[in-house]
Design brief:
357 residues, alpha+beta, Heme iron utilization protein-like fold, 2 domains, nine-stranded antiparallel β-sheet, 24% helix
Amino acid sequence: MSLSTLPDNIAADSLYQRWQNLRTEQTGLRARDAAARLGVSEAELTASRLGVDTVRLCPEWAALLPALGELGYIMALTRNEHCVHERKGYYRDVSVMGNGQMGLVVSADIDLRLFLSGWSSVFAVAEHTERGVQRSIQVFDRQGTAVHKVYLTATSEEAAWAPLVERFRAEEQSAELALQPLPERKALRADAEVDATVLRADWAALKDTHHFFAMLKRHDVARTQALRLAGREWAEPLASAELPRLLEEAGAREVPIMVFVGNPHCIQIHSGPVSNLRWMGDWFNVLDPEFNLHLKTPGVVELWRVRKPSSDGIITSYEAFDAEGELVLQLFGARKPGIPERGDWRELAEATAALEV
């Protein structure tokens, strides 16, 4: 569905009206789920609100992202199909590379890796709720899927909101998004076509965990395929139920961890302890004051303990994947570059017995 510009007086049969009817029938339905029910993207659903409580902004990332710091203490949200990562803090230390394709936010609390070439549309939303007006900046990709959102909190600089929205307001308040289909998934190479011996040698020669993705590209292998072929020295399969257990144990032992959650266009990182851990049906949650995590556990179909060599020694992670082989979540021990892995994290990460395959 492709929407044209909506008038201020929204027609009764418009997408917006259908959405409101659905919300009346199913209170508490989130925009992402409502979009799926209505057969549209979340970006189209958001665009249908133009002239009601939403303003389309100019996608000028190099200017807009640093400007978010003016909003003060905010909540940043990044998610994928199975996991939601919410971190409160300040949008500081923002940089966008010269080519505009990559960006970083590296403050102590808001820690992001931004792949801006996939970012497309952006909106400012001021939705009236039972708890008052909820203000947010929402970014979507070319398929209309949410990439990253920033929400104002009770202690945000609310006075900065209107000037920021006005400064970046798009001249044409159009709901037209020119969405594109997802690129066709590349077929996985057969394991027999991969030189596993050379792959293992390259793995063993890694000096920086950030070089891992480049290694996968050189060998033309998918991430889970590389884990299968690396050998148990470097990667071991675990029961998926071990993921929440590890988080629970990290909380009980007060081991600070790094929690990476992302999608193809944004990765969000929490560094620190986790403490208030709760199950809600199939969802495993971290509900701490500054950090919330919501993990839909049935979405995790593969879990691996992964070891990568680096100039700081072996770096151990837990990596969770969905049925499509997409990365859902990664866990590391909290650390800074140049510092070896924490002993308490390694002990915890290595305590689980691997699956016998």
